[in-house]
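**Paired protein data**
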Amino acid sequence: MAHLELTRPERSNAFDLTAARAFAEAVQIIERDDAARAVLLTGAGKRFCAGGDIHSMIAADDSSAYLRELADVLDGALQKLDSLPKPVVVAVQGSVAGAGIGVMLAGDLIVADHATRFVTAYSGIGLTPDCGVSWLLPRAVGQQRALQLLLTPTVIDGDQALSWGLVTEVVSGNAVSRARELAASIATGPSHALGQARRLQRGSWSADRATTGADESRTIAAAITTPEATALVASFAGSSRP
């Protein structure tokens, strides 16, 4: 299992350009690591992620060019993380804001502390969504709820995020511990099958029904030849005999 942690707690794990580049590099390392059968994504400190680092934008000589590069680098890393054939489990706490929502939604299973606060925050500073938030958020909670979050200063807590479908599970206390448990369990499972199931599900949003069906057929045909599937299929067949 690979552990990918945001480590700018003094900035609520907000991303400046240096942090975005480091994040992108870390995702590339995980992509090449065949031993990493699952990914645990966490944020150090009291808050998961505040999105982009506003202070770094203000300090830039050309704030527009800086923000464009920051958004492009971080979104490129998130798209890479999104496409990995490895399940991603996320733990969130404190607050998740702005691009932090896009970071969180690059995961498959999201465990939140019930006291976590979720807010898009863009409109409060006159900015617009980035890092896939306008694409990912309505797919998680539906169009009208996504628009409510984007167009108003609505803040929701962990319990409401669960009821809306924004997170998978809510705990009282240590979300990282529960997320680690889930990631460790997934890492002991059939990695090829789980990774490809993730790829098929996440890729289906941008493919039509026929393309998805054909991809499923190719993928399941390849899956049954893997050592893991061969052993599990044989075991199931043996145990199901009358």
Summary: The CA atoms of residues 207 and 213 lie 10 Å apart. Strands lie at 2-6, 39-43, 88-92, 95-97, 109-113, 117-119, 156-157, 169-171.
